[in-house]
Amino acid sequence: MTRELKPSFLSIVMPVYNREAFLEVAISKIKSQTINNWELIIVNDGSSDESLSLAKKLTSDIALKTTIIMQTNMGPGAARQVGVGAASGEYIAFYDSDDEWFPDHLEICYKHLISNPDIHWVFTALKRVNVYTNEVLEKHSFYNEKGPKKFQELKTKSIHGLKIFKDKRTALFSIEYGIEACFQCSVIRKSVFDKLSISAHRIGEDRLFITHAIKKGFTLAYADLVTVKYNIHDNNISDTNKKAEVDSRAAKNHLLVDSYVDSLKVIDNLSIKEK
Q1: What is the pLDDT of residues 33-57, one digit of tens each?
Q2: Which of 76, 87, 128, 202 is most buried per CB count within 10 Å?
Q3: For 187, left (φ over 0), alpha (ψ -120 to 50), or beta?
């Protein structure tokens, strides 16, 4: 059952680049969210397939809540930032067009933000699945075969199932280990983007933005729940496809290194250890 929560609402920003094969499922997952106080902003990032026409067709029944922006290919980070610039909502949610939200993803994150005005960013976990075989490659992104991932060692304050970071080491852990606050699992207050912009790096822009947000004093928190299915396929832009060709993965990690190097130029208050 879909419930409408007012008065504030969310802006869903979805970059699209040659995602014709995934769009029907992606948009159906947005439509099936358990809350409906959202607008959808699709940024067509220079697609050469039928993504644009298909997006228009699939959103025709929510036309009053949909904006489609067209641009030359600039990568997902730049596309997300363009979407944020067009957003009217008090909260920003990012949807990767080849992933799948669970029906309660938006409601879980949104309710935590509504209930905790001092928190700026709420994220959940995802599971990684091979889209061709349906094999689950990672059941829960907060854990590995050894148990909880490193970021769960950080001191937190717990409120109604939400763990709020209360540790001076949070930025350091973000740099050194990652804290799994990926964009597609997050809902973020629009006010964060009044201070920060997503970089145009094609890989690593999320990790750079996370660390920058922490160093700017924004408060992040997480719910230990899986609410997103991350589809692993041949055209993943990130380095998460462990079965991809070695040369491809190496090239992607070089781009990731570039984003880390540039973080020294962007974040001006890193500690010596963080640098």
Answers
A1: 999 999 999 999 999 999 999 999 9
A2: 76
A3: beta
